[in-house]
Structure formats: C-alpha cells, structure tokens
Amino acid sequence: MNIAGSDLDPLILGTGGFARLETLGEAIEVTGTSMVTVALRRMGVGGDSIQGSLMDVLGAHGVAVLPNTAGCYTARDAVRTAQLAREAFETDWLKLEVIGDERTLLPDAVELLAAAEELVDDGFTVLPYTTDDPVLARRLEDVGCAAIMPLGSPIGSGMGIRNPYNLALIREGTQLPVICDAGLGTASDAALAMELGCDGILVASAISRAHDPIAMARAFRAGVEAGRLARGAGRIPRRRYAEASTPDAGLPELSP
Amino acid sequence: MISVNGNPSDVAPGTTVTELLRMLDAPDRGVAVAIGGEVVARSAWGRTSIADEARVEVVMAVQGG
Known about the structure:
The complex is a heterodimer.
Chain A: E1 2-3, E2 6-7, E3 11-14, H1 21-31, E4 35-42, H2 48-51, H3 54-61, E5 64-67, H4 75-89, E6 93-96, H5 109-121, E7 125-130, H6 134-142, E8 149-150, H7 164-173, E9 179-181, H8 187-195, E10 200-203, H9 205-208, H10 213-233
Parallel strand pairs in A: 3-4, 3-10, 4-5, 6-7, 7-8, 9-10
Antiparallel strand pairs in A: 1-2
Helix pairs in contact in A: 1-3, 1-10, 4-5, 6-7, 8-10
Chain B: E1 3-4, E2 7-8, H1 17-23, E3 31-35, E4 38-40, E5 55-62
Parallel strand pairs in B: 1-5
Antiparallel strand pairs in B: 1-2, 3-4, 3-5
C-alpha cells in the first residue's frame, strides 16, 4: 500500500504484548512487515533494560517506526505526545489515538478530529485510529489525514470485524488508504478486512499474545495475502437460494 | 528542586538537557524531553538549561500497539 508517497507492506505490526524482543524480531521477519508501532513512556518506569534495546531490534530489522499516542484522552495530551514522538523517533508519522472510554478504549471522535487537524497543520503525517464511522472517516480525510484506520472491534478484544458493512462504506467513501486497526483475533479476520477493500491491517495482540506468536504471524501473512487476492479476483454475489454448479442437461432417467 | 519524571532529583539548576540525558544514561535513539509540559526539540538539547523548580519529563521508546 502507498501512504503519503511511501510504499509499505499491507501488514503493520504493533510491538505491544511481545514477551520477548527476540520473538518480536522473529515476528517482523515472518510477517515481512515494513512498519511497526512504538509508544513512549517515562524512562525509569518498568523494564528499561529490556526496552533499552527495543530501538536496536527495530533498527536491526530495518523497519520504519510508527509512534502512537496510546493512553491519551484529550487532543491536548495527544498533540504533546506527538511532539515528543517526533523528537524521539525523528519522524513526522503518527498513529493518532485519542481514547474516550477506559473500559472499551474506544476513540473519542471529537478530540480525535481536533487533534488530527492541529497535527496536520503542524506537518505531521497523521494516521488516525478511529471508530468504524464512515462520516467521521470523511471528516478525518477533509482535515488532511494520510490514511484512515478504523477499528474492527475494541483494542485487544480479538472480536474481529463487528461491522463489515461499515468498513465497506468507509472504503467506498474515501480516496485514502484504509487500514483495519484493532480487534483482529485471527488470520481470517485479516483476510476479511482485505476482502472488504482495506489496503492493510494493523495487528498486535492477535500475534503477540497468541499461544505461538510466530505461527500466528505466519498465519496473518497468509490471511492478508488470501484476502488481497480474493478482493482482486471478485467474489460471486450472495444469493438466497442455490444455483447448481452441475448442469441438468443429460441427466439419465433411472426410475424403474 | 528540579523534578524528573515526577520524582525530586539532585540535578543542579543550569544543567543542560544533553547533560541530564548523559547523567541518566539515556540511549541515543527513542528518547524525548519536555520541561514544564513543553517539548524540547532535539536540536535544542545542548543549549537548553534546566531552571530550578522545573518539572522535567524524560520519555523513551517502549513496546506498544
């Protein structure tokens, strides 16, 4: 897929949830991803020694980083976090995440749009994590976002794509790349996202928290590829009743 | 007293951001600094000195989706 002039693999890998950096590195290789998400937290809080080499691992695998604003509940906090990320990672790219509810981690549409507008004006390449709302997607496009990243279902829920109809509407309603972000649980969810016309997916927990993360990484790669091919192939329409695939003509008369 | 990441510190007023990061043994990449809620540009680290009573936040790259 192409975002803001950059060719990217359709699978963006979230780095969250991997118990070991070695597993993250292997998942990067197996998925073939070209971009991974990262977050920012206070230095000196929890496992600096482990996290200290995160950038080394990402550098060694040659992937671009997409900083997120996870944990922000207001446009103001998200903008500040984005500014920190720009200095930390020396990139203008941003996964903009403004959360509105602790239990569901669903996006706050009002704060999201306000933050997106301010960050675009400040020169950021903004990829907003958004609800599966086709109207909000259009508003995000209008303020200059570089892609639309609607959720399939709540972050980490593994519930898959709860409203495929809305993802299809978002696809039809925007010129921007559409990346299904959040909620994917298994490889068939990735295939469905691609079949619905998404340009890519963003997956973290479904791989990092799987019983066998590397096997699941491989499955997601295949799912993305299967869905992309199926989308291009053009599926048959759904019908209420059967349509025989074997001709009636030439059926032998076998009654006594 | 200068605070760093919410904790009182013995960092002397006038210390630059670059000096602070060296004291904290911060890695070169994936680090950013804010003073009083204002982000300090990487290019300004060497000439930005930290005033007494300043609240400094030093953040670094962590795993996250």
